[in-house]
Amino acid sequence: MKDSGRQERLRSLPAVDELLQEKAISDAVDTHPRTLVVRAIRNVLDRSRQGILRGEAPFDLEGFDRSLLVNEILEELEDLASFTLRRVVNGTGIIVHTNLGRSLLSQDALERLHLMGSGYSNLEYDLAAGTRGSRYVHAEAILCEITGAEAAVVVNNNAGAVVLVLNTLAQGREVVVSRGQLVEIGGSFRIPDIMARSGACLREVGCTNRTHLNDYEAAVGPQTALLLDVHASNYQIVGFTAEVSLKELVELGRRHEVAVMQDLGSGCFVDVTRFGLQGEPLVQDSVRAGADVITFSGDKLLGGPQAGIILGKKEVIAQLKRNPLTRALRVDKLTLAALEATLRLYRDQDTAIQAIPTLKMIAADLKTLEDRAHVLVEALRSSISESIGVGVMDGFSMVGGGALPAQNLPTKLVAMSSKEMSVARLEAHFRGYTTPIVGRVEQELFLLDVRTLQPGDEKIIVAAASQLST
Ligand SMILES: *Cc1c(COP(=O)(O)O)cnc(C)c1O
């Protein structure tokens, strides 16, 4: 395109004020802040200008179609006006789905969030003495009650908890870890890197598949600050393997007067073997084994808000509280409110399993899931076009969140396929719905696992599916 043509096209773009006079756009000002409407207009005009300068012709010069421009502005406005953090339907069957927000909170936790978020609280106020208090007391008593620990402190997340403990107990000194436990959790949390950042020196022992007590023992010396046990939460080493138990590490630590830390990762308070899941250690057992300090997440298997929970011996926890890093990692009142409410549910395990969504989803029995899947399939059949096939299939759910990596929970899936569109387009349609629906694609089928659907999600799925035919 010639330069003169470009100039002419640029001049043909309407001015902001002119566009604000357009009926559809002036209507939008009634429902959206004017500044946002103006921003949408500017964004679209800028993009059009750049397009023209690149030699593209977004609008026909002769029959300049302003309605195209107006529609683009209205779409841009919808984009700008929508929340970036949105509710989605989790049909993946991954219960603790890190990308989809990990844990759902119990009703009890939600009520406390509302109460503590809408009013003042004694967050850092000692009501008995009428003086300044500490925010760190709030979850401590209940944590000790449930786990048997001497003391506890809660920080922002478990990654922060690990950094804090390493920095407090081992800065400038050595931490002994098995080579089989130098894990990457994801989101660039790698034990060796975290160790370096916290100022501790990593002392690797053993081999990837086998580490023995004498490997640890040989590494212990005057430089040793800590023996660290990391729970292999998101992977498994199988075959010819050997690991040292926490109890053995504790004995070794005692003999050499070296503290023992365990990063449990998930943090499970109830025995999940009765739901067919093996190998997730109980927090209570780690406390009983005598670890000096134990860290785990609040929002993995525990089913509470994001938090890093640290249990330990009184002196260790007191030392952690004195570290200025604790202030940098400090936990918010909303977190404490939700966490305390979640923890109280664990006073009775059956109550916890019923009330905490993460546990309830793990505990859901296959018959209930099958019934729900059939109800959803019937609802879908009556509202979608003939070209979409739906049915119930067997499958597996996953705990996720780095917990119980190699184990699957048998489940029921609702499977969809279309004669008219590819499974990729089908998946994109559901993902792009007003309330996005995230599922799995396997063997040319779009799959929704009913285990991770929440009450009301079925309605959303049916509404999204019914738009497929139009
Ligand atoms: C998940 C995990 C962490 C990090 O916990 P966040 O709560 O995500 O910060 C640390 N260590 C282990 C072993 C984990 O599984």
Description:
It is a single chain. Helices cover 43% and strands 18% of the residues. The chain has helices at 3-12, 16-21, 23-31, 34-53, 66-81, 107-118, 140-147, 158-170, 191-197, 213-219, 246-256, 283-289, 314-322, 324-328, 333-345, 349-355, 357-363, 366-381, 423-431, 457-466; strands at 89-90, 94-96, 125-126, 131-132, 151-155, 174-178, 184-186, 189-190, 201-205, 224-230, 259-265, 293-297, 308-312, 388-400, 409-418, 437-438, 440-442, 445-449. With 470 residues, it is α/β, with parallel strands linked by helices. The chain binds pyridoxal-5'-phosphate. Pyridoxal-5'-phosphate binds next to α8 and β11.
> Based on CA inertia axes, which overall geometry fits?
globular
Give the spatial strand order of the biggest sheet: 5-13-12-11-10-6-9
Straight-line N-to-C gap:
39 Å
* Low-pLDDT sequence parts: none
Please write the CATH class name of the largest domain: Alpha Beta
- What structural category arises from helix and sheet content? alpha/beta
Q: How many helix segments? A: 20
